[in-house]
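The record is passed on directly below:
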Amino acid sequence: MQGDYTADEAIRILLGDAPLQAVTTGEGAITLQPRPAELQNNLGPQTMPAVQVVGKAAYDATDPYNPDYRLPNASTATKTDTPIMETPFSVQVVPKQVLEDQQVVRLDQAVRNVAGVNTSSLNQGTTDGFIIRGFQNNITYRDGMLLPTILGGGTTKREMANLERVEVLKGPGSILFGRSEPGGIINMVTKQPLATPYYSLQQQFGSYDFYRTTIDATAPLTNDDTLLYRLNLSYENAGSFRDFVDNERVFIAPVLKWNISERTQATFELEYQHFDETNDPGITNIGTRPANVPINTALHEPLLSKNKGDRVLVGFNWAHEFNDNWKISHRFNYENYNFSTMSLFFGAASNNGDVDRFLNLGPENDSGRYFNSLNLSGKIDTAGAHHQLLLGFDHFIIDDKFVGNCCQSAPSYNIFSPSYLANVPVLDSANSFKGSYTQDWYGLYIQDQIELPYHLHALAGVRYDSAQGSDNILGKVTSDEDYLSPRGGLLWHPMKWLSVYGSYTENFGPSSTLLRSDGLRLPPQTAQQWETGIKTEFFDGRLSSTISYFDLTKQNIRVAGTQAPLFLPRAAGEAESRGIEFELSGEIMPGWNMIAAYAYTPFAKITKDNDSNGGPANTGKRLFLAPEHSGSFWNTYEFQTGSLHGLKFGAGVSGVDQRQGDADNSFQLPGYMTVGLLASYQMKIGKTKLTTQINADNLLDKGYYAGTNSGNFIAIGAPRSFMGSIRLEY
C-alpha cells in the first residue's frame, strides 16, 4: 500500500489483526507491545520479539512540532493548496521553525529570508514597509485578506504571535488579490485550532530592556472534536538603543472552529491589539550620506512622538465540500484601527547640522475595513486533461477618517548638539485639517490549473476589478476605475526533482486621484511581468530550490504636468526592474537545515519621468532602496543522538549593497552585512518539552542603515543585540 501516513497510521496498517499494539513512548518513539488478552479474541498464540519503530510524521504544516525548513505546498500563488513544484511562479515560504529559530518578532525579520525582498521605513517605523523586486510595498495580507495601510500614515507593525508561516508571491498578484503593488504579495498564514492538544508558554528577554511573553493553546472542547479552539496571547515591553524610544504591546487572538460535519466547517476568530509606541523618524542626511552622529541621536521630540491606539479584527469563515471534487468557501473580515499619533518631519541637514523640523499631529484617526471573499473550486477531467477550477468574488470597503494639524514649524534643532522641548507648543488652528475617504471595490476572477499529458502543467486566469473612491467631506467621487488583469503560465515537470516554468502576469495598481478634489481623473497604475525559472527538489523532497529571471514594468505613474496655466499631473511615468533570484531551503542531512536567498537586480530604474518644463526629471535614475545585490543565509544543526541530543547551533548572514535614499538619487545608504548566531537546548521533563535558546544579532556590531521613507527619514539598524528565550511545550 502506498501513500502518506503518520507513523501511528502506518504501524496500525502494518499490524492489521496481529496480537500487537503500537504504543507511543515519552520520547516520541513507537514500541510494539502485546495486546491485552481481552482484545486478542481468538488470534492464537502468536508471539513476536519486541522491536522499536521510529518514524517521521508525514508532512503537516500545522503541526506545532514540525521542524521542517521547507514546506512543499503554498496557497498564496493560486488560492489552492498547490505544490510549489507545480506552480509557474516564484513563491517562497518561511515556515514556523525558521521563525522560532531566528526568534522573529516582526514581519521584516521574517521576509529577509526571501530573495528580492528588502525593508523600507514607513510612517517613522510604525508600519510594515518593503521593497519587493525594486518596488515599494506597504500592503500585507492575512490568510489571503487585505490589510491596507491607513491613508495619511500611521497604524502599527503586525504582531507575529499567531502566525504559522509567511508566504511570499513574487510579482503581480492582482488576479487573486485585486488592487496591489506589482512587486509581490506578502501573505501571513495564521495558526488554526487543532484536534491534538498543544500548549506553549514562552518568555523572551533581550537587549535594551526587551521583554515578551507569549502563550499558545489549542485543544478540542468536545469529546467528538466538533468544537476546537486556539488561543494566542502576547505581551511586549521594550526600550531601544535610540533615545526616548520605547513601546508596549498587548495582543489577544482567540479562534473557535466548529466541525459541523465531515464536509462542513465554520470558524470564528478575533484579534485585539493595543499599541503604545514611539514614532521615530531616525536621522537625516547631510549631502549624499546619512549624518555622522551617534546612533542614539533622536531628531524627534519626546513630548511629540507617540503612536497609541487599538486594532480589532473580527472574522468568520466557512467551507462546505459538496463531494470529493467541489468545494465552496466564504471569508468575512471586519477590521478597525483607532489611534492617535504625534510626530515631526524634516528635510536634509545643513553642513553645520541645522535642520528644519515641522509638527504633524493626528489626534483622531479611525479606519474601518469590510472584506468579503467567496470562492468555488472544483476538479474536472476533459480529454485527458485534469482541471482544477477556481471561481471567485471579493468585495472591499475601506473607510478612513482623520483629524490633524500640520505643518507648524518646530523649534530650531542641531543634530550635533540636540536639545528638546520642555513643554508642548501651542498649535496654530489655521493648520488644522480633517479628511474622510471611502474606497469601495469588487473583483470577479476565474482561474484554471490544468494538468496535461507529458508532465505539463498550465495555468490561465483573468480578473475584472471595479474600484471607486470618494471624498466624504466634499461629497465627491474622486476616482472611478476598472481593469482586466490576465495571467498565464506553463510548467514542465519531466522528473520528480525538476520543473521548468514561464509565466506572464498583469497588475491593477493604486489610484492616482483618490485624494484629489479638482475633478482630475488619471488612469490607474498598471504593471506587467514576464518570468521564467527552474525549480528543483533533492533528497526525497527535503531540499528545494528556485532560480528565476523576471522583467517587471510599472506604468501610469503620476508625473508633473507641462500644460500652463494649471500644470495638472499626468499618468505618464514608468519604472522597470529586471533581475535574477535564487532561493534554497530544506534539510541537507538529518539535523542540518538551511534557508538561503540571493537577488541580483542590475536594472531597477525610472524609465519615464518629466518635470513641469518637460525635462527628463528622474528618468534613468535608480529606484530608491533597490540594491543591485542582496541576500541572506541561515543554517542550523541539531544533534540527533547521543549525549548531545537536543543541542542545536545556528549561524547566518544577511546584507545588501549600496542603495539610493530617494527617487532623486540625491543621497545613498552604504551597503552592509550582519552576522547572527543561535544556540539552543531542548530536553523533556515527563511529557513537557523545555527549550532554552539564545540568539545574537549583528554579532560584529556593524553600523548600518535599514532603509528610508523615500525622503529624508533614515532608519538606523540595531547594533549588536541578544535575545534569550525559555519555552515550555506540552
